[in-house]
Design a protein that fits this description.
The protein is an alpha/beta fold and 369 residues long. It is 39% helix and 19% strand.
């Protein structure tokens, strides 16, 4: 366990939320001061983008959490670029604590080329594990012609009238390893030379607050609380915790999914479908259900916090958020050559903003969901 993680676990919940809130406030004020990181006004029905985060691209070895997700991610990009979506990469895209920047960019040159097809529709943000992109010289050397942002405000309208604001950022702000001049180098050293060695030897996944159930829950609550209490009642879109969060919804019911795939297979056996395809889907669902780690998301009723999940799941799937057709949609691209996304949850953006207008910004979310 890293030093920042150990410290964060022992902070009182209100103190942890206070630190996160202060960090998010600073990021929001900086975005307000910089017109280059403000998008819009744009009509709600004209928004068309997909948010991915937390790829943690490495160099293709056992410490590379993105390697198993590369196929699903490439399939997703191929689909979205053809459909005219914007691509919003919300931080921790590269794992630069554990690897040299040049080595990572060389390993994933094909993926970078695919991302470049989005042209001006590509927006990049930095997180705590690729904080190096905060340095313009590093960006110039490895991502020539691009900019990497901390955060962005999207002003949304409906028939020309202000509807609300989206605030996009990685979500690490305010955490103890998000910019501390002492702890970040220490954490980076431990990840690169100690934990990275263990990963390459034994194939362990990256250790981070995203893999700590207590901190994940606490951080989700802190970001939900910040968005809910913000004076402008923002819709916050973030990553960092590696777990999808969607307003007023429950995690996917993997047992129900297995039952549905089993029924499809039984129908195929009776002559009503392809037994090979349905059996494959059934066995995939069975493994998902068996190894699912329970995750209790925070109580987000009345909140406006969405999390894209990650592109480094152990099963090779990736999750993201589509913002298109007047909706926000939580989607999953499955490993193994999926040609389209599975929509896990969806909601009208108009309804989301209407919910915010109807709830007082001073109301505090419960810290214990």
């Amino acid at each position: 366990m890293s030093v920042p993680t150990l410290i964060a676990r022992h902070l009182p919940e209100d103190r942890y939320a206070w630190w996160v809130g202060k960090g998010m406030d600073r990021a929001y004020r900086r975005a307000l001061r910089r017109p280059t990181v403000r998008l819009g006004p744009i009509e709600v029905d004209d928004l068309r983008g997909v948010v991915f985060s937390d790829h943690h691209r490495g160099i293709g070895d056992n410490a590379d959490d993105f390697r198993r997700c590369e196929e699903a991610y490439a399939a997703a990009l191929g689909s979205y670029v053809e459909r005219g979506y914007g691509l919003w990469l919300l931080g921790d895209v590269e794992e630069l604590w554990a690897n040299r920047t040049a080595a990572v960019m060389q390993r994933y040159q094909q993926i970078l080329t695919l991302e470049d097809e989005f042209d001006e529709r590509l927006l990049r943000f930095y997180g705590n594990h690729d904080l190096a992109w905060r340095n313009p010289l590093t960006v110039y050397r490895h991502l020539p012609g691009k900019r990497v942002h901390e955060a962005m405000i999207v002003e949304v309208t409906d028939s020309g009238k202000p509807l609300g604001k989206l605030f996009l950022t990685h979500g690490h702000q305010g955490t103890i390893d998000s910019g501390n001049l002492l702890l970040v180098p220490v954490s980076r050293f431990v990840v690169r030379f100690v934990w990275g060695t263990l990963q390459r030897w034994r194939g362990f996944p990256n250790t981070s607050p995203a893999e700590d159930a207590l901190l994940r829950h606490r951080h989700d609550e802190a970001m939900a609380r910040w968005a809910h209490e913000h004076a402008e009642r923002l819709v916050l879109i973030a990553g960092h915790t590696h777990h999808p969060v969607f307003l007023n919804t429950d995690p996917p019911d993997l047992v129900a999914e297995l039952q549905a795939r089993t029924q499809e297979y039984e129908l195929a056996v009776e002559g009503h479908g392809d037994t090979a395809e349905t059996r494959a889907a059934q066995e995939t669902a069975r493994i998902r259900a068996l190894r699912d780690e329970p995750y209790d998301p925070p109580d987000l009723k009345g909140s406006s916090y969405f999390n894209s999940g990650c592109c480094s799941f152990a099963d090779g799937d990736v999750t993201g958020l589509e913002i298109a057709d007047g909706e926000v949609r939580l989607v999953r691209w499955q490993a193994g050559g999926a040609r389209s996304a599975e929509v896990l949850q969806r909601r009208s953006l108009r309804d989301v903003f209407a919910t915010l207008r109807g709830s007082p910004g001073s109301h505090r979310l419960p810290m214990n969901a």
